[in-house]
Design brief:
Two copies of one chain form a homodimer. Chain A has one domain: Tetracycline Repressor, domain 2 (Orthogonal Bundle), CATH 1.10.357. The first copy, chain A, contains twelve helices and no strands. Chain A is elongated. Chain B binds a DNA duplex (18 and 18 nucleotides) through helix 5.
Chain lengths: 226, 226
DNA sequence: GTCTATAGTGCGATAGAC
DNA sequence: GTCTATCGCACTATAGAC
């Protein structure tokens, strides 16, 4: 699979996420007409992610958000109840969406080698489609309150667990030589994260997400070789 | 070399950095007695790094800093001129200090294999000694003004260049098989950064910095094998 | 050299008109 | 459902007493 194949099978993910937000948080959203609400939620969450991936969530003021969305302060507060709510909703709904897609693709292939390759690709491709979300999870998790931080940690460990399981299967089938599965899974994640955390570097060097994915797969497979 | 060997050869690095700050920024520091000034600078910079690695620099108020240092608002402003100054000084002086140590250790060994190993170790060991500084560079660079951001980018690329040079030498001496030197150097950095960015994970799993260093060296060397 | 007091600004949040 | 106006508070920064 290449990035272009992946991309054309994805519908408008922001709308999917926002429709879910509308349904799950109906108590704190005052607007009742679904189509209008979802349209505005898309506007608000896109703006919030754009601004906070530029300057950080703490430094983004609700007045910045008014300017970016074209909505007034009063209108904004019809779509969430506090600024901190916004932080938590992005974290929870975003992670949930991403986890769903990852699992779906990994379950669709059979062999261990294919699972490892597709896990690497989908993680990179998703972060290419929705980079602000990934940057948000990474940068803002440490500023959340304890309860939300625990959820962020759980998400991080869940992604890692996907790789631990794959490596374990590979070892059992004598496909990989892995001394330390946990440490190996631990270092795969940061290599995937580098793609969105230092995107400027890869843009500057004109490296595409497919080139990066191909490189990572061969680099990791070589390190796993028996 | 092990971490304990490295640690005992390091003097009080914060004091070294702060003494340098006192000398280079004498115009914006109103206090003239060096010993007093350095003592207070150590207090201030330690506190600022602690607070901003906890909640982020933007979210750290100068009132927080007063509480943490035990100094008053007025006193603080005798040691720097604006809050943003503090950000820039940490970035510049910290990066300068770290770059100096890295170069020193790499130049002290002769062979390419030793240089690769020592570069990995010293990066990890330094980030173990002064994690708040590394976290600060990583998390706050994107919130700096353009001019300071360029310096942060230059530092990132300089570290990477160290690895590019080592890999290039290794290839010329036919010690390493590297298809793509730039991408290989690119992915080494994030594996080093994971040590301080996800320190909680390694603490929880009781993995020491030496274990992590040993693992990384063997993982990378395996991926470079001919 | 350090303190307290305060000026001036911009923040998150809400009430009430339309 | 969206707007404007405004409240109360916390912020950075400074002036002047000690």
């Amino acid at each position: 699979m290449k990035f272009s194949d992946f991309k054309k099978h994805q519908s408008d993910y922001v709308e999917d996420i926002c429709r879910n937000i509308f349904r799950e948080y109906s108590q704190s959203i005052k607007i009742k007409k679904e189509e209008l609400a979802v349209r505005n939620l898309v506007n608000i969450y896109n703006a919030a992610l754009k601004l906070s991936s530029e300057k950080g969530f703490a430094a983004m003021s609700l007045r910045d958000l008014c300017r970016e969305t074209g909505l007034s302060m009063g209108a904004l507060y019809s779509y969430f109840s506090t600024k901190e709510d916004l932080l938590n909703i992005i974290q929870e709904q975003g992670q949930k969406f991403i986890a769903g897609i990852m699992i779906e693709y990994i379950n669709a292939v059979d062999t261990v080698v294919e699972k490892l390759r597709i896990a690497i690709r989908i993680h990179l491709y998703l972060s290419e489609i929705m980079p602000q979300w990934y940057i948000f999870f990474f940068m803002e998790a440490r500023h959340m309150v304890k309860a939300e931080q625990k959820k962020a940690i759980a998400s991080e460990l869940a992604t890692e667990q996907i790789f631990i399981d794959i490596l374990e299967m590979g070892r059992q089938q004598k496909l990989f030589a892995v001394d330390n599965i946990i440490l190996t899974a631990s270092v795969i994640k940061p290599m995937l994260q580098d793609w969105y955390l230092k995107r400027w570097k890869y843009t500057r060097r004109q490296i595409s997400v497919d080139e990066y994915a191909d490189f990572l797969i061969q680099f990791i497979e070589k390190a796993l070789r028996r």
